[in-house]
Every structure is written in C-alpha cells, then in structure tokens.
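USER: Write out one fold?

ASSISTANT:
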Amino acid sequence: MSGQLDTKTQIAFAFLVALVFILLILNVFSYFFKSFQTLWSSSLILIGIYFIFVFLNSVIQELGVLCWPNIFLTLMVIFHLGYYVPLQMGLVAKMQDYPAPGDRLIPFGMTLFAAAMITFEAGILLGDWISERRKAKPLNQTTEYELKLIFRFGILLSFLSGLLLFIYIMQTGGIIKTFNMSYSDYIQFMSSNDPRAIATSLIFLPIGLLLVYIGIDRSNPRKSRLLSRIVILVAFLLALWQFWLGSRGTAFLLLLSFVYIRHIWVKRFEQKHIIALLVVILLVSIVLIPVIKGIRNVPVAERGSTISGVSLNPLDALVEMGGTIRPYIGFLQLFPAAGSNEYLHGKSYAIALGRIIPNIGFQIERDSSQTYYRSNVWITQQLDPAAASIGIGLGSSGIAEPYINFGYPGLLIFFFFLGLAIMLLERYTIKNKSILAVALTAFIFTATNWYIRDDIYGVIRPIAWGLISILILFFLFKRKRLENEA
C-alpha cells in the first residue's frame, strides 16, 4: 500500500488479513490436536494458498508481482514442493530415497510448510501496515556524496573479491584449467584444498557489483547507461561461468538480485516486461536446468556429445529444484516428530555466529564427524554418508532449521519476523528512496533467499557484514550531513 489507498487495494488488504488469520487458527489447531493434517498435504490447497497470497500481494504492494514477498514465497514453493506436487498428481515417478506422498511424515511436514507460508505472510501484512503509518523522511534523500561512497565501496569490495577469485584460479592451475573443471572437480577441490578464497569471492563479488550498480550517478544518462551495462555484463559473465561450472542456484540468484535491484531502485519494470521476463525464465529453466544437471559432472571436452543425450521433460527443472524435500522430511524423521531427539534450542544459530569473523589463519576449519555442527552437513551425513564423504551436500531447509531448534512456536515466530523485516526494508527503501536501505538489500537479498534451501551457517556472513557495513556508512552519511549544516 502507498499514498491514498484505492478501494480495490483496501478490499484486497482486508481480505488477505482475514484469510491469514483464519488459516493460522486452522493450522495451529491441526498441529496441536493432530487433526486434519492430511488437508495441508493436499497439493491443491498448498498451491491455492500460494497463488492467493501472490495475487493479493501484487495488488497491495507498490512493486507489484515482483515484490520481495512474492519472490520469497515462490522460492519456498519451488524448493519444497517442486518435486512433491508433481509426484502427488501422478505426473512424475518417485525417485529413490525421496519421500512418497503416502509417507507418514508428509502430512506433518506440509502442516509445518503451510505454517511457514502463513506466518511469513502475516509478517508481510504487519510490515506493510506499520510502513503505511510512517511518514517519509526527506532527510534520507540520496545525495551525490552518498552515491559516490556506495559506488566506491562497491568498487573496493569487487576488487578485493576479484583478487580472491584470482587466488582461486592460481590454486586450480590457471584460467584454462579453471574453465575445464567439472562440477565434481570443483566439489573435490572444495573438499581437499583451501576453499576460503573462492567461497568468500562468490559471496562478496556479486554484492560488490550490486553496490556499484546502486551507486551509479544517473544524472548523466549517457555515462550512467554505459557504467550500468558494464556492471551488468560483468555480473552476467560471472553467472555464465557459474552455470558452466554447474552451480545453478547461485548463478540464478545473482541474476535475480540484479532484476530486483533494478526494479526497486533504478527503474520499475512495466507489467508486460515482467510477464515477458517470467516467460523467459520459465522457458530457459525448462531447458537449462536439466542440461546442466546432465553435463556438469562430465569432462568439458565430452560435454558436446553428452548434451545430445540429455532428455528434456518440462517438469524436470521443477522436480530438480524440489529436491529440498528430501533433507526437509529427513530432519523431521530425526527430530521431535519421531520422538528420537530433543530440539537444538538455538544450537545451529549459536554455532553460525562464530562464522561471522572470517578465518584468516593458516588452518582450514573442517568437521567430518557425525556430531552436529551445521544443518546442511549434518543431514547429509545422516541420510547419505557416501555423498558426505566426498563433500557433496543434500542442502538443508530453511523451514526445518527453525523447527528443529525451537519447535512449532519457533517456526511461527521465525517466519513472522522474517516477513516483517523483509516488508519493512522494502517499504522503507521505496518510501524514503533510501540508498542505505537498498545497499543493505544488496547484501542480504541473495543470502536470505538462499536460506530457503541452506542453513544459517552458510548465509550468516553476508547478512552480518551487511548490517555492519551499513551501520558504518550511516555514521559517515550522518557526519557529512552535519558538516553541510554547520
């Protein structure tokens, strides 16, 4: 909502509030009384809730269908239901080691999934309501000094990340060998060598490029267009290399982050452009994801002949991304739903806090034991020890992690405040045209979305350093303003 609300928006907002309240009451009842949980496992109900939320969000949010709440909800559904829904509808065959629709924990798991969606949307609505009642602050209008500072900070971060990427290239034996690595070679490198340079580079190089893009002074259209195209080209080449390597998720989120930042900060996409963009993403995903899966572990020299043998099914991409359901249900088998373990009581989040400070010593921190130290690694060790032994992870679940730490109430609270934070940040950026807010978004957008299929250990560093960096910039901005007023 923004400005004077029209009748259509008011009705949509009121309907969404009522729907969320009713669904939440029903979900709480289902969880505590173990009643009607099979209803939550219905594909039609889950997908119906998703589409209603997305449609109404598109009506009430200024960014329309491409608002962050819709992006996050879509990724939640794709990664957790992409395999489950086609399987339940009989469109694909059950894969080995994956849960079947009739498994005893599916109703319970889908009850929790619905709870996450509903409370996330509740947080979005509260954030929108709070934002609507706050007046924009002219103090936060962007100045030339602030643009330059963000631009230079982005250049510095990109340069340092580029140096780390160069170190990785030297570690692999040169740029030719780097481009000839298969995904299995890359995983082997990460398991048996020092991976800190490439891991840190792939986290912060995209953020640096986003900050440069945000900080471009657009008062000179010709110069700004040239700089924007250069930054976008570098980001595209980075994503293209990641696709070539086989790291599809990080490449996709890199491109998505540029689309979102452009939409919220640079220039709004028109409705027809958004529809065209969604169609392109759908068509490319249908082809690209199965092809990359089929060739990424094949030596580069043999990929040309391998591509011809890759079969394409329109659902393959969706099913591939929906593999998060395997670790998700696995967590529920090993934690209180099965009565075999106690909750972690925040252990995974506490351990992740130690990852905020980079390891710049001479020793590489590894843990190959069967004891818990991060959700992603632990669940792979439990479900697929052979994969864990060679450094391959099954991924984690952003829905399972808060549950195994704090149970059902913790899940509700976590997703409620996540939705609230996302909405407050997005609305503050739009309403105040705040470069600090959009710079913070550049730091946390990819990490927050990636958390859906990862653990907090894997995403906390960009989030924490984003907050620290924006706090430092805030004081620099404030000091400059005070100097100008003196």
Notes: The chain has a mean pLDDT of 87. The chain has 22 helices and no strands. The chain has two domains: 7-135+395-485, 139-314. The radius of gyration is 23 Å.
